[in-house]
Amino acid sequence: MIKFFRIIRQNLLLEGKTGRYLKYAIGEIVLVVIGILIALQINNWNEDRIKEKRIVGYIKSMIEDIESDLIYFDQDIRNFEQKIKECEYLITSEGYKQLEVDSIAKLVRPLYLINRTTSQTYEKLKNEGFIESLGSNGTNKAVNDYYNTQIIHYQGLIMEDKEESLKSFDYWYYNSTYEASTYGNDNTSTKPFLTSASSRKTQIIKLIESIEGRNHIRGNLIRKTKCLRSAKLIQQKAIALKKMLNQELETR
């Protein structure tokens, strides 16, 4: 094709048709420019198509992350609610005194949870600069609020509760009066103790009834209540965000 155009130009020059040659040359330049613009447009279209495909993949992956978070939030909420009931029972009732010593020990056991939320997809989006390309301003804002505010706040409460719960371990398990049979989920009740079960029961009840013991229980109650409140709130945020992301997929 280039050789064909060159021949036409040469013939026009040989024939002395300079005016027609100039017009032809200008026309050829226009065609070249149009060709370049079309090529650029096709290239941009391909890049946009590839980018859109990747964004859709990220949205689907983020929905999977949120679904995983929702499973953990549901488990966390149940654990917090159970521990709150145990703390309230120890503070408001003496019914625990009728239980066996190991059952009482389970009530005072300082439960703490670890953060299991997933931010992997969100971090990839940030690194690739796609964080503002998920959809509407409302969706982008909800994503940023979920990962930069709600998740971080929840993680902070979880960490605070863990640190304080570990301090309570020292009180309940490393004191000089009560010989514990359990540590976390591990049990050594089949091993011999220095004192009888009834004596150990009397000792752990004294720990519970002391001011320090009740303060540990109250502190645990307060922390778990704060964690529960945050878990329920972030659970609702996650449900709403999942719905928004699904709606974005439907519009693409």
Q: Which helices and strands, and how do they pair?
A:
Layout: H1 2-14, H2 18-92, H3 101-108, H4 120-128, H5 137-173, E1 182-183, E2 186-187, H6 197-209, H7 211-251
Antiparallel strand pairs: 1-2
Tags for this model:
mainly alpha, 252 residues, single chain, 78% helix
Work out the oligomeric state of the chains in this entry: single chain
User: How far do the termini sit from each other?
Assistant: 41 Å
**Which structural category fits the helices and strands?**
mainly alpha
Radius of gyration: 35 Å
Catalogue the unreliable spans: 1-5
Query: What amount of the residues lies in strands?
Result: under 5%
| Order of strands across the main sheet | 1-2
The largest pleated sheet is described as: 2 strands, antiparallel
Average pLDDT over all residues: 86
Shape: rod-shaped
Number of strands: 2
Query: Share of helix among residues?
Result: over 70%
Distinct helical segment count: 7
What string, H for helix and E for strand, traces the elements in order? HHHHHEEHH
Structural summary, described in words:
This protein is mostly helical. 78% of the residues lie in helices and 2% in strands. The chain contains 7 helices and 2 strands. It has helices at residues 2-14, 18-92, 101-108, 120-128, 137-173, 197-209, 211-251; strands spanning 182-183, 186-187. Strands 1-2 form a two-stranded antiparallel sheet. Strand 1 (182-183) and strand 2 form a beta hairpin. Helix 2 (18-92) runs antiparallel to helix 4, helix 2 (18-92) packs antiparallel against helix 7 (211-251) and helix 3 packs parallel to helix 6 (197-209). The protein is rod-shaped and about 105 Å long. It starts with a helix and ends with a helix.
